[in-house]
Write a structure and sequence with these properties.
This protein is an all-alpha fold. It has two helices and no strands.
């Protein structure tokens, strides 16, 4: 897939996580992302993508 096709989705994902992180610092209530789950899913996605490409 061309990088121009993939880059907008990756940037939107990063921007969304940063926005929720900033909102959790400035707003009352529990709106922060579950960082442990997010990092675990991201690592699984990276590993799965790498293994899928290798196979």
């Amino acid at each position: 897939m061309p990088m121009a096709t993939v880059a907008p989705a990756a940037l939107a994902s990063i921007a969304g996580a940063l926005t929720y992180g900033l909102l959790s610092l400035t707003t009352g209530g529990d709106i922060a992302p579950d960082w442990t789950l997010g990092i675990a899913c991201g690592a699984g996605g990276l590993l799965g993508g790498y293994l899928g490409a290798r196979l």
